[in-house]
Amino acid sequence: MIAQPTSPRTQLRWVICLLVFLATTIIYSDRQFLSLLKSTLTDEIHWTDSQFGLVSSCFLGAYAVGLLFFGWLIDRIGVKKGYSISIFLWSLAAMAHALVGSVNGFLVARIFLGLSEGGNFPAAVKTIAQWFPRTERAFATTLFNSGANVGAIGAPILVAWLLQQGTWHLPFLLAGGTGLIWVLVWWSFYAVPQKHSGVSSAELAWIESDREMEDSPSEKIPWLTLLRCRQAWSFIVAKFLTDPVWFFLLIWLPDYFKKTRGLDIKSSWPHLATIYIIVTVLSLLGGWTTGHLVRRGWSVTRARKTGLLCFALFVLPILMVGNASDWGAVLLIGLAGSCHQAWSANIFTTVSDMFPKGAIGSVIGLGSTAGSIGSMIFIYLCGTVLQHYGKTGYHLLFAYCSCAYLVAFALQHLLAPRFEPLHLNAENRLKP
C-alpha cells in the first residue's frame, strides 16, 4: 500500500473555501430580505399569503432551471468562468429589486434572481472537489454551506436596523454591490490547484491523494448516462424531499413568528438570528463528524450513512414546536435547521464520493434542480394552506418537516447502498 501524504502546513485550499463561503453568505442574505420585508411590503403593495407564496415559488422554479443550466455549463467551461458569470448576473438581479414596487415587479425580479443564482452550488461543490481530498470534503462543504446560516443571521439584524431608518431598498443594493466586488476578487485569484502559483508541492500532493476517483479532466458524461444511474437518483430524490424544509424555514419563519406569536421583524430578529447561530455552530459539528470518522478508519459509506441517519432522527422533535415557548421554538427550529445543513453538506459530498469529477457539476445541477422543484411545489402549497387554515396551517407544515429526512434516508439507502467510486465502462455506463 502506498503511503498517503499528510495534511500540509500550507492552507491555500481553505482560502478558496473562504471565497466560496463569502459568495454563499451574500446570496443567502439577499434570499432572506424579501421574507423579512413581507409585512412591510404588504402595507405598500398589498399582497396576500397566496401571492407571496407564488412569488417565492416562481423564484424557486427559476432557480431549478438555473441549477440545471449552470450545472451543465460549469462542467464545460470550468468553475472560474461559470461561477463568475453566475454571480455577476445575480448581482444585477439583486439590485433590480430596489427598482420595483408591485407584486408583478417582484415576481420578475425574483425570477431573474433565481435563474442567475443557480450557479452557486454546482460551482461551489465542484470547487471543493477540485481543491480537497475526500477526508476533508464534508467539513469543507459544511464550512462554505454555513455561509447560508451566516447570511441568515445577519439579514434580520440588517433589515431591522434599516427599517428604523425608513427604507427597505438599501439591503438589495448592498447585496448586489458586494456580489460585484466578489466577482472581481474571484476572477483575479482563482485557478485549479494544478495551475495555481500559490500551491506548494506538499499541498498539491495532499489535494491529489484521492486520484483514484478522477477520470480524464476533459471527459464529460452526458445527462442521459447519469440519469440511467441509480446513484444519481439517490441524490436527486434526497434533494427533492428535504430541500423544501430549508426553504420553508428561510421564507416563512418571519411570518410564523408574527402570526403565531405576535412578533414582527423589529421584535423577532433576536429569535431569527439565534436560530441561525445555532444552525451555524451545530451544522459545522455535523459536517466535521463524518470526515473525522473516515479519518479514524471508518469506510466512507459507514461514516456518511451513520451521520445522515442521526441528522434525520434529530429533526423529528420539530413536530412539537407548536406547543413550545417562543425560545423553546427557537431551540427546536435551530436543531432542525442544523440537522438539515449537516445533512445537506453530507449528501453533496456523496456526489464527489461516487462520481468522477467531470460529472460532479452535472449531478449537483440535476439534484439541486429536483430540490428546487420540490421546494417550489411546497412553498406554493404553504401559501395556499396558510391562506385557507390561517396560523393553524403551520402544524401541517411542520409535520412534513419532521418526517421528510427519514423518508429520504430510506429511499437513498435503497438507491445507493454503498458510496463507492463509479467509472465509465465500455458500454458508456457508470459502474463501480
Please give the structural blueprint:
Blueprint: H1 12-36, H2 38-45, H3 49-77, H4 79-96, H5 103-117, H6 120-131, H7 134-164, H8 170-189, H9 201-207, H10 223-227, H11 230-261, H12 265-295, H13 300-315, H14 326-354, H15 357-389, H16 393-415, E1 423-424, E2 430-431
Antiparallel strand pairs: 1-2
Helix pairs in contact: 1-6, 1-7, 1-8, 1-11, 3-4, 3-5, 3-6, 3-15, 4-5, 4-6, 4-8, 6-7, 6-15, 7-12, 7-14, 11-12, 11-14, 11-15, 11-16, 12-13, 12-14, 13-14, 13-16
Low-confidence runs: 213-218
Strand content: under 5%
Q: CATH superfamily, called what?
A: MFS general substrate transporter like domains
Class based on secondary structure composition and strand pairing: mainly alpha
Any idea how many domains?
A: 1
Q: What is the highest CATH level, the class?
A: Mainly Alpha
CATH fold field value: Growth Hormone, Chain: A
| Proportion of helical residues | over 70%
Main sheet summary: 2 strands, antiparallel
Level-2 CATH architecture: Up-down Bundle
Shape: globular
**How big is the Rg?**
21 Å
Quick tags:
432 residues, Growth Hormone, Chain: A, two-stranded antiparallel sheet, 16 helices, 2 strands, globular
